[in-house]
Amino acid sequence: MHILQQSEQDVYALASALTDAKKQVGLCRECYHLSAEPICDICRNPQRDSTTVCVVEDSRDVIALEKTREYRGKYHVLGGVISPMDGIGPEQLNIQPLIRRVSQGGVKEVILAIGPSVEGETTTMYVGQLLKPFTKVTRIAFGLPIGGELEYADEITLAKALEGRRELD
Amino acid sequence: MYLKQLHLQQFRNYRQQQVEFVAPKTILVGNNAQGKTNLLEAVALLSTLRSNRASSDRDLIYNDADTAQITGTVDRIAGTSELSIFLRSSGRRTVTLNSERCRRQLDFLGTLNLVQFSSLDLDLVRGAPENRRRWLDGLLIQLEPVYAYIWRQYNQVLRQRNALLRQIKKAAARGKPIAPPGTLAVLDVQLATLGVRVVRRRWRALRRLVPLAQHWHSEISGRAERLQIDYTPNLQGADEETIDRDPEAMRQGFLAQIQLKAEIERYQGTSLVGPHRDEVMLTIDNTPVRQYGSQGQQRTLVLALKLSELELIEDVVGEPPLLLLDDVLAELDPDRQNQLLAAIEDRFQTLVTATHLGAFDDRWRRSSQILQVNAGAICE
């Protein structure tokens, strides 16, 4: 309805923007993030630290992490998580390219930032085992939301937060 | 705890129904298929979010409607809570506690506790092990709601692992066997980690339940018989002390057994080790009740188990839970009826269904609120 009320010109502009996006946006050859160029902005940026690679499930996670402006390293997008029920094995994901990328050396740390679902956990453990021979592998901590009081946290979140504890610096 | 009010909208055969509970005991009387069990089912959903009768939420919604709603008001020591469940034919549910939407089931569970006892519960004693596991899991969710999460995760890993084993089996059948992929090794670890958590909690619940059940059983059977309840996890060499002291050793044992069964599992295409195959053995005077118990013995035992469930929940939660009796009173002889009555007194709010009031002892009738159920409508 909204679109029908617009001028013909605006609708054409919107339609061509959408088809252009579909035509032009592909995946970065390096990290598999959405990109209009063969290599994405993040991978091309010399300011970014290429010794750290953060592994995520899909491009939405890259966008979320970028919003924090905290992370200065690079990414690797797996394109999903391992789920035999849905016919998704490691072969269907961008895991081999990640191993190749890391085994070439130069990567000092891989951060696994995949959600804590059963399938996310399977994927984290699987990828972690393959990468360990080449570099230091860490995973993001799951824990208490900022502004959350300890006594109101449920035991699952608390247990996860305990698991991810670290030494006070 | 006390359920004060129940409101049903488009739930099962109820269009719109408000019920006020004004006595510790409520008897719902009516012919078959009028909606007595549906009402108890609605109350049970508020407690556990599970139905023993419906295969999908579609079944819970009035004929042509798309949504249904159950709302209950519960008094507890800490205050009054309003629980609400919106059901949609699409299967998506929304649950609210005091009008606030719960993001996770965990935040909703544990507000209303109850014990259900229906004529189907004889299967608990004479049926397949699955019945006893479901019973134990349902009890555990009430004792520690976090169990609902652990149990769901275990089942999800199990489904994923079985899917993978089926793929391996199919590949072998096509004459192109695939080497067990690394994914399987990861799923083994996940299954063992979660499986040990399930077993540990089942043990913990039974440890507290067994003495209570033995006590009730000897009361009801007149101390003549000796009840024994043995939890036998599908995990060789598992014992209660090790699992508490050293869960890691248990987990290693779990993994070792998966290794032993690896070939058969790949051949059969399904997971053979783990708590999804646990059993709870019930024996009376060293005789397995499942095979040898008489009908009378089986009924006595179910009653003892239910009474111990009531007592255990009261112990752990700190307040007496509700008791839902669906069509069972008529099956109990006057002696057992009286024992049940004496045990619950007015401490446990009780909802009972029956086809006619004749089945009830005078004492029951006098102290109860009586509601007539007729074609999806309830009146005093």
Quick rundown:
The complex is a heterodimer of chains A (169) and B (380). Chain A is α/β, with parallel strands linked by helices and 169 residues long. Chain A has six helices and six strands.
Structural account:
The complex is a heterodimer of chains A (169) and B (380). Chain A is an alpha/beta fold and 169 residues long. Chain A has a single domain (41-167), classed as Dna Topoisomerase Vi A Subunit, Chain: A, domain 2 (3-Layer(aba) Sandwich), CATH 3.40.1360. Chain A contains six helices and six strands. In chain A, the strands form two sheets. Chain A has a four-stranded parallel beta sheet. In chain A, strand 5 (109-112), helix 5 (118-131) and strand 6 form a beta-alpha-beta unit. In chain A, 25% of the residues are buried. With 380 residues, chain B is α/β, with parallel strands linked by helices. Chain B has a domain at 1-113 and 320-380: 3-Layer(aba) Sandwich (Rossmann fold), CATH 3.40.50.300. In chain B, 45% of the residues lie in helices and 23% in strands. Chain B has helices spanning 36-48, 123-126, 129-143, 146-173, 182-220, 240-245, 247-268, 289-292, 295-317, 334-344, 362-366; strands at 2-11, 14-20, 25-29, 67-76, 79-88, 93-97, 100-101, 114-118, 227-232, 279-284, 287-288, 322-326, 350-354, 368-374, 377-379. In chain B, the strands form three sheets. A six-stranded antiparallel beta sheet of chain B has the order 2-1-4-5-6-7, with helices on one face. A six-stranded mixed beta sheet of chain B has the order 8-12-13-3-14-15, sandwiched between helices. In chain B, a hairpin with a 2-residue loop joins strand 14 and strand 15 (377-379). Chain B starts with a strand and ends with a strand. Chains A and B meet through helix 5 of A and helix 4 and helix 5 of B.
